[in-house]
Design goal:
alpha/beta, 15% strand, globular
Length: 81
C-alpha cells in the first residue's frame, strides 16, 4: 500500500516550535501540503471547511484540548472519512 504524499495534513499544536518540528519531519518524509494551526477551535472550523487526509493533534491545549477536538470530529457526520 502506497502512501499518498500529496494528501493534505493538518497539524494542531499550540507550541510554535513543536509545530514547526512536526512540519519539518513530515516534509523530510515527502509530504508538502501541511497546515499548522495553534488551537482546537480553529482546527475544528478548518476541518469543516476543507478535507484533510491526516490530522496530528496535541493532546494538551487550551481552550479546546486534543481529546475535545477528537470527540467533536467523531460526533460530526460531515467529518466522516
Amino acid at each position: 500500500m502506497a502512501i499518498d504524499l500529496a494528501m493534505p495534513i493538518l497539524v494542531v499544536e499550540d507550541s510554535k516550535t513543536m509545530g514547526q518540528i512536526i512540519r519539518n519531519l513530515l516534509m523530510l518524509i515527502g509530504f508538502r501540503k501541511i497546515e499548522n494551526i495553534s488551537d482546537g477551535t480553529t482546527a475544528l472550523a478548518t476541518l469543516r471547511e476543507r478535507k484533510f487526509g491526516l490530522v496530528i493533534s496535541d493532546w494538551n491545549m487550551q481552550p479546546m484540548t486534543g481529546l475535545m477536538l477528537l470527540k467533536e470530529v467523531r460526533a460530526d457526520p460531515m467529518l466522516e472519512a
